[in-house]
Amino acid sequence: MTSPALHRVHLGAFYPNDHYYTLWSKAPLGSQVEFVAFRHFAQSAERGLFDFVFLAEANWLQEHRGRVVEHAIMDKPDSLTVLAALAAETTRVGLVATIGTTFSDPYTVARQLETLQALSGHRAGWNVVTSHTTFGVGASTNFRPGRMVAHADRYRAAAAFLEGTWGFWGDHEKPVIVQAGGSDEGRALAAAHADVIFTGRRSLPESREFLTDLAARAATHGRPAPKVLPSTAFVLGDSQADADERAREWAQLEMTPAVARFILEEVWGGDLTDFDVDGPLPGFDPDWKVADAYTRGGVDGERDARTLIARWRDLSEREHLSVRQLFGTVLARRDFVGTPLAVAEQINHWVQSRASDGFVVNPSVVPGVPGQPGGLDEFVDRVVPELQNMGVYPAEYAGESLREHITGGDARHDEPEQHDDGDT
């Protein structure tokens, strides 16, 4: 009896420059805006045979109570400009730009992406985003009035926007489409248009349901199932104990009192400057309008604020967690913690059990410092060889275009294989 074909692991790399869980205080540090950092990051991803590098975008400086949020750096250079420069510094890795539909126009976006396609040899990708109301209202002040779309309408508007760009491209000119979001509206948009889904991490059973649902929805449009690549972070060590200790250290570095208080105010609303974040959650309810805006703003996760707060309270009371400890637990970004072999085995388990097609790796440190623990170099040097030894990751690029990277070398079955759900 022939054993089932192994599914190939796909990897993308997210440039880490705008989140509190980037370890800004961990020396030595590189710059998040100098071109040398972008170049090193892209070349490292290419050395690791990643399908693509992925740059986020922001049209605003995030503010909180009238001040710019220092731990959420939003001074990103324009992603298309950076990727055009990287096209000359790389030869195979895909180049994915984040471009919003709310504050753009179809012709302009089509022209920009076609230019990147030409400069890169068809390695361009477009991460299609809409501006949710939490940040979108702030971003809208940088554009002409009337561009903000109500939450209920933004996916319908995004679909119309995408369809508006198709007329400017021939079939062979279209970039790979990446889309984030796990809501029903987001799934519908992804099934109709996306080649790759960038999503938050769920449990194994929930992830299998998500992948299966998207495949079924795509089939109704006569399209192949999009690749599902959850965002993930990692902590490596020479032993499990070493990795666990490093993860605890990094958790303390990222969830500072200032960050914990910021998140608490983002959910509860109001000024909680004097609240002790090393104590339990507030005994009073949040401003539910503020809490609802917080839950709607996430790419994935619980959308009902009352359900989310109830879960937080239950976990906090059951485990006797302070606010900082709670947020460090429920908002943790260290999904894979262990030796390089153990991390590779966990990644492969997710892919072979049809919970994902791979992952978008989100390193923990600012790029530009070769060999820095938690950086992309460490993953490329230590985890990628283990995946190759398992026979689930390529030894060289099979094609030249991003679309060839995404579709090449697959062994996807019509039905997910059955595996033990012991891991979550």
Q: How would you characterize the overall build of this protein?
A:
- The chain is an alpha/beta fold and 424 residues long.
- 42% of the residues lie in helices and 12% in strands.
- The chain contains 16 helices and twelve strands.
- The strands form three sheets. An eight-stranded parallel beta barrel has the order 1-2-5-6-7-8-9-12, surrounded by five helices. A two-stranded antiparallel ribbon has the order 3-4.
- About 2% of the residues have low confidence.
Strand and helix map with partners:
Elements: E1 10-14, H1 35-47, E2 52-55, E3 63-64, E4 67-68, H2 79-87, E5 94-100, H3 106-120, E6 124-129, H4 133-140, H5 154-166, E7 176-180, H6 184-193, E8 196-199, H7 204-220, E9 227-232, E10 234-236, H8 240-254, H9 257-268, H10 288-296, H11 305-319, H12 323-330, E11 336-338, H13 340-352, E12 358-361, H14 376-382, H15 384-389, H16 402-407
Parallel strand pairs: 1-2, 1-12, 2-5, 5-6, 6-7, 7-8, 8-9, 9-12, 10-11
Antiparallel strand pairs: 3-4
Helix pairs in contact: 2-3, 3-5, 5-6, 6-7
